[in-house]
Amino acid sequence: MSEELNEELEDLSPEEQEKLKKLMEKDSKSYRSPTGFFKWLVALLGGGMVLFYFYTAGLATVATQYHRGVYVFATYVLVFLLYPAGKTRIRLPLTLVLGAILSTVATALFFDDTAAFHARLLEVGDAWTEGGLSLALGSAAGLWPIAVGTVALTPLLMWADSRMMARGEKNPTLSDILYAVVSAACVYYWMHEFENLNYRAGAENELDAMISIVGIILSLEVCRRVLGWSMTLIGIFMLCYCYFGPHFPDIIAHRGFGLERLCTALYLTTNGVFGVMANVLATYVILFIFFGAFLHKSGAGKFFIDLPLAIAGRSTGGPAKVAVIASALFGSVSGSAIANTVSTGAFTIPLMKRAGFKPHVAGAIEPSASIGGMFLPPIMGAGGFLMAELTNTPYAYIMMIAIFPALCYFFSVFCMIHFEAKKQGLKGIADENFPHWKQVLKKEWYFSLPLVIITVLMILGRSPGFSAFWATITCVVISWFRADTRMGPKEIWEAILTGANNTLIIGATLGVIGIIVGTISLTGIGLKFSDIIISLAGGNLLPAILLVALASLVLGMGVPVTAAYLITAVLAVPPLAEMGVPILAAHMIVYWFSQDSNITPPVCVAAYAGAAIAGADPWKTGWTSFKFAKLLYVMPILFALTPAILFQGHTANVNAEFQSEIPFAQVLKVNVQEGQPFAKGDVLAELMVDDKIVKVEAPMAGNAVTVKAISGGLINLGDAIVEGEIPATPGKVFSSMFSAILGTIAFSAFTMVFWIRKTTLIEWLLLGAATILLYWPTFITDGAGLVIVAAVWFMQHSKNRRDLAAAAPA
Known about the structure:
By secondary structure, this protein is mostly helical. It is 68% helix and 5% strand.
């Protein structure tokens, strides 16, 4: 664990700290702290990467191959130097693979004809596919130097690694160093040959093929070292699916791809390892991770606790409400629900326990609030930047549509905490020494400047990278406002190294994510997945959303949420869009669902982190966090059914409606083209019906998405002429948001089985009905829902009065 994280946990007992450290290490694997030469090498690589991307963000741009390649280069090398191979039983296979790679390279260098050597290697692969192991071994007889080299190198490497480990586990072994060198060579080759690779795309040479095969192997190993086997196995499965395509069930089968074609497509192009994930990480995410490290080093963390404490500390259930506000502030820039849980939970969870919250409740509230930081601008983790990239939408617009749902989520957790505290009879923190929130702002207002600068610059249209660059500079400036937080060269360098280390967790995913996304593109499984979703849902939107939620939960187990979002988005957005959900709304649905593995058992790593701090049962804490975070599953349904909550319109068809004994008509003329806006009353088409011209007018303003009628053709009664996108009006946006707020209050009471007192079964069912009515954005349903809520309030208020009267002395 990092030094910063250890500082956050100083108030915990040694047993609690050790338990939490083991959990965090299980989730993300512990990395080494090198000494001597390797310490300086790691610092040089990490610091150089930070400075390079600061330069590209604030001063100049660089070519694509360097922009993406430098990030992959530094990430792969740092992972091999900082993350050990793992348990003893995995070291032998890894050493065998390394020995085979080195032996193959050596054999290729001394082979008279490189093309012949390459052809011999391909023959072995073909023999394996056609005749199995025996035929492959016979075909490989001419490649005996590779076998001899592998057998000779493996024990030597094992011996050298053992000697180096005996001297201490802080420095990398010889195998780690060689893996780092090989990975550096593979990435350098891609950068150096980038333009030539584009020219010979589809006709790669022998060296291209060998580099790509090794690069894919290294990408899998980088992911395994940092994140474990869960995501690595997904990548391996996708490779097997590509290679053995014809052998899969008919519904997902494909023609299959040879090893050379597969690896070159996934490694040498910008559709795989160096694809969208590498671009987003290098363009946006890395800079905001650096920004978070600098913001923490500037002393802003104390402000993120002091302000919520002053605002909500004295209210009912105060410590838990402090956790919500602190998590919103910290989570909006941390980019990690687990880091958010640990950093704010180290303070808020013990405070909640002292205030009377049960340990499993205290441990659950913090992660439930922490995942909300992934939805809240200005940073939204890495998912917001991915969404902007995938939808070709300005990030400032993504921020705008994400604000209200995020605040609604925090409001939901806030309300549930209030009802839970009322149910348990818990009060706020009785401490007269708490400063007023105005005093906190007056004393520490400047800590909010970096967030303000990021938001303002992006609203003004500057790039996220440029905004993060200047916000990071601001962190250094504001640190000098107080003597105890001033960042000199030492502190700046420590922040740089912290940022570089923090990027490795998400950076380790880019290779496997590239493999997954690339194989989806190669095989066309995305289209087949769309057909499966639509078929299983019977063409109905709500079941389709539930299937997407289930797919997201399964794909997200043990996978970083950003990776889970990208994988699920590639598969699930097309079917949702085909069923009429606006593209941005579909991406928001997937993005929200991608967070569920943090708080939904059996994985729920963020909830387990909260349980470790609270000293509570992890399983019980996980289910309790699921209860407090239930709006995570409700809000995506609102995105689909009422997209106006995201400022999105809806699709509607303008149909051929006419009266005639003949159930079809001739289309004389279509007056609109795809992508063309139209106003209410515009004539979209003219039909010939019973020798009369019938004009089809637009019932409302919109944009033509698809023109389905053809001039001169025939059209049946009721068939769609134009599929249009109807923009959301201000009135529709307001009513959707107002209904969402009312529905969230009712939903929170329904979830906690409490309104002004514990609800009976009838009252609980009434609150459930009111929730459904209030979430549907019409004045009639809102009115009906409010009447039901008022009726429940009156019923409970009457019971309270009767109880008080019965308890009063005669």
